[in-house]
Structure formats: C-alpha cells, structure tokens
Amino acid sequence: MNDSQKKEIQILLKKHIEQYPSQKKAVDALRNVSEATVINIRTGKWESISDDMWRLIGKQVGFSAKGKWLFIQTANSKTIMKYFEDAAEYSNVFAITAEAGSSKSATAAYYEGKHSNVYHIECAEYFNRKVFLGKIMQRMGMDNMGYTVPEMMEEIVDALMKKETPLIILDEVDKLPDPVLYFFITFYNTLQGHCGIVLLATDYLAKRIVRGRRLGKKGYNEIYSRLGRRFISLKGIVQAEVEEICRQNGCDDPLTIASIYNECEGDLRRVERMVHKYKVKQAKKAA
Questions:
Q1: 3-state helix, strand, coil in the chain (%, to 5)
Q2: Share of the chain above pLDDT 90, in %
C-alpha cells in the first residue's frame, strides 16, 4: 500500500463521512474500524496503521487497487435512478430486475454517494432477520449490538421517521432465504408512507415469486401485492454504452473496444476486467 493509494483512501473516507450527520455515525457504518483510526487517517497521522487496515477501510469506502473506475451512466442506470427518486419522494416500493453485471449495484452505490438518507444494503444467502436488520442499522450509522429483532425494527423505524425522503435499496434481494424475504412484508407494513424501498435483483426473483404464488407458498402473494404486482425488467447494454465506458476509463483503441463488446456478454463487470487487462498491457509496453 503506497502513499498515493493511502491518499486516495483518505479522500474517499472523507467523502464517506460527509454522507452522515456526524463522524461517529460514519465510523459506526464501517466494519471493524475505530474512530481513532479514522481520525489518524483524516489528519495524515497514519504511520502506525497496517496495510491490512488500509485495505479493510479502502474496500468499504470504494477504493480499488486497479485504479479509480469511473461510473458512466447507461440507459439502465438512468432508469434505475428514476425509480430511486420516485420511491424516495413518494415512499413507493419497486422491484427492478436485470441480468447480472447490468450495473444495478454500481448505480445504487453511486446514487447513495450523491444523496443523503439513502441506504444501500447488499444482501446475502446467510442473512437471517437479525443480520438483515443489523446491516441496515450499520448502514445508517446506528449501533446494532445487544438488540432483539423487535427492538432493532423499532430503532430503524424511529430513525427513518425523523429523516426527510429516506430510501432503502435492497440489492441482490433474490439471495435472501425465505424467512427474511417474508420479513419484507412486516418491513413494508411498518414503513409504508414513511420510506421508499427499492429491490434490485436478477430475474430469478420474479421467477421465484411467480413459482411461490403458483405453489401457494406462505407470503409470496403478499410480497407480490406489495411490489405493485409488477417487476420492472431492464434491457441489456448496447454497444455505444460499452464504447463510452471503455473510453472514459482509459481504453481508446477501437479494435480492443470492439473485442471487449463482443466478449463481455453484456456484463459490465467483465468490461471492467478487460479494460484493466488492456491498461496493464499498455503500461508494460511503455515500461
């Protein structure tokens, strides 16, 4: 971890802190990071901070050792942000589905960084109700230790009631096990009219809900109803978008760009990897 990378993490950490009402709440939203460490990084007194700690903080504030990857808006990302704005303004609930690598997560992270009272939660298979609520509390800069599930729910609702146009983005929600997915009903009922909620997932979520309803599985019809009985399905990326993403991120060779588009299979994560590979190759040639 060199000084240039540390300075980049310092800048990203400052931006992270600016998203919260206080430094303490910003630190609470970081995993396994003390306020003393954050203060030392902000003031440039980082000689005693280990590389492992730098990597831990960097990962949580958006640092990449491959270099800064510029977020370029696509038709999909613009559509997603339109629904974010609507959900926040009118406390609506939407479910948006698209193929993996369609920039759903990147758009959510970008939007969260540009707006206050927006909380982007990346879901996982191992979540139970307590972990799920704990992740939301952590993202909101709240202490989540020592609470029962009802107490955590009460703390979240009380905090959201005091915020202006809050929005919760539940990313990769199709990974949640059934008990947590059912819990969305309680979450919706409690926050209805007070907080926007947007679910992001692959089309597996839509198939799972449709199948659950057909089989008469508990909660699935209620979930579908609360989503407005509609899944907003996004289209794939187009060649012009891939070309612009490549150019803006340091790859301007037409043949390479054409190759990236033909091989990426509509997956922007693969585009990023291939651009990185091109830049590494160019750097070696120049050395």
A1: 60, 10, 35
A2: 70
